[in-house]
């Protein structure tokens, strides 16, 4: 019996784990390390209509229990992604989450229309929260009206379910979640990175060429858990949770908070086998919690009748 | 290209804050190409998430022994320098594309140019080339005598010229100041060192067949995150240091 | 020669280090560990007009390189603080930052008026960013207009300089900083804690009785550095920087970002001697950077003519 | 009340995941009062910021040796259990107010009630009371035989009754099920254990002079952060477990 499968709009996953967008390229590189068909799904790097070179280097820096990145949406553009990258994913038979980004609404719509038509793309993930390019969509990520408008327009042109990836750099995550739900989003992805900076004492300058970068890793997990907890109670669409997940226990924590599936980002860098190892370890944690199927625990920290004493 | 869990055999400080770390275990047998690197996990738990790229300085593939030489500077390498016999080291490797030894034939000539902490991979390369019957010369640059290492070991392989910024050993100056006698022989050039050195080298290697190993801050180390890109004369307009490199033909990449 | 003294409105500090509000009680407890006169200043626990008992326990939880707290502004009230707590600080002759909190504007005004009159209080620090009580001022902390209004009202009744402590849980920290500057604030304190949560796998409930708590410690330092960098360029009033400072290097990083003084919070729990040890270590770091006086580096990451090559 | 840097003498697993850690060094001489605790730093670097409160289980103040007995459960105590001879432990202590031994005179009777990981401080207290000439009895509760420890050592000090939840040793049940024979003697009661145990105990100690040691999650451990407060019959309406306690007269604090 499979105790790990979860089902979200457009995503039938044999387990709730997918690599997070931007932390797994287009899959090819990690396919050299393990069989990607082990994964519940895969989220690919942000696609823009035209190719982007991204930011100058250094693009990454280390922080305590975290890292900063300012890649700047580097990608070969939708066309090349379809011709050169997506075909590599076909053999694995896993759902593909296509993360899309842009500057203007039209960019998003064009990328959404093209990518959603592709047979291998299961769902779109609207990246309205990239903190690393001036026009990387963050303008949509912190204003509920703009986010809702964009969601509506993309929904119109997309032939696949649309998830909206929320930025944590806001005062009220519920408001953002509700705005995009009302606009027709099929699901939420959260959280993207917090905006951070490190300054090098020798050069006295920010370590990253882009100055600021996105903070990810275990350092931000408490913020992610809190926001998933809040958003999941404010909306009825499912949430792909992420932010600092390193272990099977972290996955369960995100799901108890309200996530229906979980993405693993920075952990891949510390350990290329992070995703398959976490998947393999989930059963042990479920056993220790006396849970017969993982979907039982979704929102378990706030849903009534899901406290352990009542669950059996 | 695997995750290895290797046993520390020894850790020796061979110059000021420069350590030679010898590790042993399954997986080293695949480390056949000089210029490739390993991606080393540092620290305990999740406090350090980014691995540290360290070049293969020498590998005894028959006996599964790997040597790394590194400078303890930041948090990760400082931690690494506290490991000792009995400890385990978690590393990924071998990663990247190293120096292509086929570009110089047996009987040919090669000049290996290294600066500071770019010197280590040249040891393995020099050893391999010499084995093959290539006449190898080394031009090595250090800040000062206290930072210099491995000079005697290099002398066992070929001719060696040393430059130090303060003149405490070898010639006072830069590696580019001591290499003319070697370049006159029209060797193939292999170099590893900081970008300013590689830039200066470009003038000296005009008309020569030259290969450089590059450094960049890395996220994944395996080609997935786009942290380590560099502008390049390729169709895509860029290369990734970790998976396309770290070694490139000098014309391929803009320094 | 003292290389460490800094001067801010109302605060003549012999070094830039003060314990952060809430992490040092009213000083008495740490006075058993070392001589408080070593400190540049001291920020005392948030004071409210009436005594508050705070939140139920557990009130703290550990996170990777950080911690969550939901103390809930427990304090004996302004009157008792004046009669029983402040007098203990007199012998040390260090400036006292009186952190004040409240629910309504009147609470702040009342507390501000009383405390600012006290001879031992050097400046007020308006806590408009406590995330741990529903009515703890956070409503002022995320809306620029409300923050500005409160600042103005408190400025009217305060006989001492007023610093406003900003919340990091906002989309645009510049906007908040500018709003309170225009309203008359003499300085800024930043950052307060990010809002986070941990969920216990056994009980399936949030670890903290209050559910959410404030995230502090090295995990949030990159966010603090970024916000100080942004705010310090947007305003001309000085900033007391804080958020994850553990070492003398961290202090310098905050000051390079734009802070004029630095508060140390969570570090006190890991090491009761954190403040004096950091102070003692500052000279070494300044030496290694070839800096003759610490005030030279304030804003050094963005101020022109402060790059190392031009500094001597 | 100092920060101590003590040397690990030994680390022994004495029951299922229960460790006895012996450390040695300057500062232990001040650990004279049973019921006080030490605040232990765990992990390396800054990944674990909150210290772990652990009771003094025994202290040899003449030889500067401290024993702690703890359960390795979460991240910090799991790390602590990997320390071995030669390692250092950073701890603050002694902290808090322990058991006041003056409340029972030489020749008097004392009952010490402990549950699970609340048992360790009773060892030091029992030893001290017995030394003073008090007749000491112990009622000890564990989950199961695999979790039980120190029973033989307690028997050297006084009479011992044991209860386990599954009946694998002693009586099946709780500590409250095995203590009647002792309470009949009207002893002074000292107890340490989880809150449910202390609540159950309250019925059994009616009319008796009883002192309880409390647990709460701590931030600073020194009275500054207000993390560990507990409602109390004091003028301020609360006490801090870390600095006012952890031991209180049972009437003082609402459990
Ligand atoms: C392909 C390659 C091979 C290398 N081989 C060697 C070698 O053999 N010996 C040696 O001493 N050094 C080598 N380096 C440099 C080495 O990776 C850095 O010195 C090291 O990562 C610094 O880590 P830290 O913990 O000291 O510094 P920290 O400041 O703690 O590092 C923080 C982050 O920045 C990165 N970083 C800092 N400096 C550098 C740098 N110069 N290059 C790349 N990343 C950096 C770290 O990897 C880490 O992710 C190599 C670098 C590359 C790219
Ligand atoms: C005064 C006092 C004396 C104690 N004496 C002992 C003893 O002698 N032996 C022993 O095994 N245990 C003792 N405890 C309990 C011990 O402190 C916890 O078991 C321990 O802190 C758990 O840490 P962890 O790393 O295993 O868990 P984690 O879950 O990693 O801890 C996370 C955080 O929660 C805190 N925490 C978790 N559980 C508890 C708890 N039950 N009580 C207080 N804080 C907790 C930790 O201190 C830490 O700050 C004592 C507690 C107190 C308050
Ligand atoms: C190097 C890097 C690149 C990223 N690129 C993207 C991206 O292209 N699109 C996107 O939506 N999120 C991107 N993210 C954010 C992650 O998908 C994820 O939301 C975030 O890192 C938090 O998860 P983590 O802590 O597990 O890494 C990137 C993160 C990192 C570290
Ligand atoms: C236990 C605790 C209690 C706090 N109480 C207050 C408070 O009363 N008033 C306030 O303005 N900030 C309070 N803070 C926030 C700190 O002053 C500081 O802004 C924050 O913790 C970030 O700094 P740090 O990472 O160095 O701790 C508290 C923080 C902690 C950890
Ligand atoms: S380090 Fe990730 S692509 Fe090179
Ligand atoms: S733990 Fe800080 S007051 Fe008790």
TrEMBL record, chains A, C:
Its cofactor is FMN. InterPro entries: Aldolase_TIM (IPR013785), DHO_dehydrogenase (IPR050074), DHOD_1B (IPR033888), Dihydroorotate_DH_1 (IPR024920), Dihydroorotate_DH_1_2 (IPR012135), Dihydroorotate_DH_cat (IPR005720), Dihydroorotate_DH_CS (IPR001295), Dihydroorotate_DH_I (IPR049622). It comes from Fictibacillus aquaticus. Belongs to the dihydroorotate dehydrogenase family. Type 1 subfamily. Binds 1 FMN per subunit. Residues 4-286 form the Dihydroorotate dehydrogenase catalytic domain. Signal peptide: none annotated. The lineage of its organism: Bacteria, Bacillati, Bacillota, Bacilli, Bacillales. It catalyses: (S)-dihydroorotate + NAD(+) = orotate + NADH + H(+); (S)-dihydroorotate + A = orotate + AH2. It is found in: Cytoplasm. This is Dihydroorotate dehydrogenase. Its EC number is 1.3.-.-. Catalyzes the conversion of dihydroorotate to orotate with NAD(+) as electron acceptor. FMN binds at residues 21, 45-46, 99, 127, 165, 191, 217, 243-244, 265-266. Its main location: cytoplasm. The gene is pyrD. It holds the Pfam family DHO_dh. One of its GO terms (biological process) is 'de novo' UMP biosynthetic process. One of its GO terms (molecular function) is dihydroorotate dehydrogenase (NAD+) activity. Keywords: Cytoplasm, Flavoprotein, FMN, NAD, Oxidoreductase, Pyrimidine biosynthesis. The active site is at 130 (nucleophile). GO terms for cellular component: cytoplasm. Substrate binds at residues 45, 69-73, 127, 192-193.
Automatic annotation (TrEMBL), chains B, D:
Residues 1-101 form the FAD-binding FR-type domain. Keywords: 2Fe-2S, Electron transport, FAD, Flavoprotein, Iron, Iron-sulfur, Metal-binding, Pyrimidine biosynthesis, Transport. InterPro entries: Cyt_c3_hydrogenase_gsu, Dihydroorotate_DH_ele_sf, Dihydroorotate_DH_Fe-S-bd, Dihydroorotate_DHASE_ETsu, FAD-bd_FR_type, FNR_nucleotide-bd, OxRdtase_FAD/NAD-bd, PyrK_electron_transfer. Binds 1 [2Fe-2S] cluster per subunit. Binds 1 FAD per subunit. [2Fe-2S] cluster binds at residues 220, 225, 228, 242. Coiled coil: none annotated. Its cofactor is [2Fe-2S] cluster; FAD. GO terms for biological process: 'de novo' UMP biosynthetic process. Pathway: Pyrimidine metabolism; UMP biosynthesis via de novo pathway; orotate from (S)-dihydroorotate (NAD(+) route): step 1/1. FAD binds at residues 52-55, 69-71, 76-77. GO terms for molecular function: 2 iron, 2 sulfur cluster binding; electron transfer activity; flavin adenine dinucleotide binding; metal ion binding; oxidoreductase activity. It comes from the Bacteria. Pfam families: DHODB_Fe-S_bind (PF10418), NAD_binding_1 (PF00175). Belongs to the PyrK family. Responsible for channeling the electrons from the oxidation of dihydroorotate from the FMN redox center in the PyrD type B subunit to the ultimate electron acceptor NAD(+). Heterotetramer of 2 PyrK and 2 PyrD type B subunits. This is Dihydroorotate dehydrogenase B (NAD(+)), electron transfer subunit. The gene is pyrK.
